[in-house]
Amino acid sequence: MMEKLRLGVFELTGCGGCSLNVLFLYERLFDLLELYEIGEFRMASSNREEGRYDVGLISGSVSTQSDLELLREARNRSDYLIALGTCATHGGVQGGANRTLKEKLRAVYGYEGNPMRALDSKAVVEYVAVDLAMPGCPYNKEELYQALIDIAKGIDPVRPDYPVCVECKLNEYECVLIKKGLPCLGPITLGGCSAACVRSGLGCIGCRGPLLGNINPASEYDILREKGYDDEYIRRRFKTFARWGQ
Questions:
Q1: Could you report the per-residue pLDDT of 101-140, keeping only the tens digit for each?
Q2: How many CB atoms lie within 10 A of CB 154?
Q3: Nearest Cα to 88, choosing from 44, 43, 141, 138?
Q4: Beta strand pairing status for 53-59 and 5-11?
Q5: Between 116 and 155, where is the model more confident?
Q6: Which residue, of 32, 45, 64, 139, has the fewest CB within 10 Å?
Q7: What are the residue ranges spanned by the domains of the chain?
């Protein structure tokens, strides 16, 4: 029998949905437990083991000094580190805020004191190198399942490099941007979600972050303007999940 790999799940600042998404694998989580021994997963257990992990999963953004310390620990203890969710890969909603930390502290608390050692929210990938970035709010759990199976088999996981629009075409979904005039960021957003929003009759909200490589946000902007959306709406739409749109 093959010796099980050790898996650690680490959580930074976020809503917790990306960690819960691991549990939402339901029956297939037991398939993974045939291949992995989970040594740390605070969302599921108070157990915390010492030592190294073959694979580490980390979700959330770096928003406090303790987040940064935990991230560095996770990187140092994991042979293969996966950034889970858009908070970890692009900064998420909190990373897209326009105001600096001092401005936010002043607006909320009335002074710039920082006893909680908060930091300007940034993506995990801005601090450490990761072996796989899996964006989404939350990420596609099928993608995580397949990646963990591949890693256990010694196979490099597939990394999508195409826009959400490709998945619309593969699934024969009607283009909601052109046909219905709905705001859709599918042309400039990294695919891998099987066009979940469009399947539900909505426009892509861009939660997987910008497509890698050469993209043309200016063209997307022009199309949205032609559809009647104003500058402020488009700007907010672009920056909701990633700091690239500021």
A1: 888 888 888 888 888 788 888 999 999 999 999 999 999 9
A2: 6
A3: 138
A4: parallel
A5: 155
A6: 45
A7: 5-152, 164-239
